[in-house]
Amino acid sequence: MTFEQFIFYIFATVTIVSAIAVVTVRNPVYAALFLILTFFTSAATWILLEAEFLGIVLVLVYVGAVMVLFLFVIMMLDINIDPLREGFIRYLPMGILVAIVVAAEIVIVLGSDTFNMAIPDPVPLSDSNTKALGEVLYTEYVYPFELAAVILVVAIIAAISLTMRKRQDATKHQNISEQIRVNSADRLRVLKMKAEEKQ
Q: What is the SS3 string spanning the chain?
């Protein structure tokens, strides 16, 4: 076993363990931190496979932007973890059933003839992996790429609509029209008092 293979197995083990921890820990902040660790080790694995562009993009986009946004949202929502812990055992059988169904669907889809695609010709060494990725992504896989973009836009709209719901007890909203129509009599009260006389 070479040193490169040894490093690969270390990164692969850390990636698998941290990915399992993402879905098993109860605290959402810990889950987000484990997801950051998963992204870092996946990026290191891609760099070992000489896909430097993918590794750097994973660190810059997901770790640097998306995961920081996740942490901000989790901390702003101030999720009460106690009810989540109470309902874990109650929903465990349904969760196991859903996991088995999803695993069976993945096995059926991956075992079909659709994924028995011919291996493309290797990229010449003169081309960079960024150029090769762009050529493949925007020619052969342009429709799946656009479909993924549409799904992400729908997810963003859904997230915004879920967070914009009005909760009278927890959020405060501005009424801009009332602020514009305000006058000095609403904000200032003049009191008439007698002047004090010196004794």
A: CCHHHHHHHHHHHHHHHHHHHHHHCCCHHHHHHHHHHHHHHHHHHHHHCCCHHHHHHHHHHHHHHHHHHHHHHHHHHCCCHHHHHHCHHHHHHHHHHHHHHHHHHHHHHHCCHHHCCCCCCCCCCCCCHHHHHHHHHCCCCHHHHHHHHHHHHHHHHHHHHHHCCCCCCCCCCCCHHHHHCCCHHHHCCCCCCCCCCCC
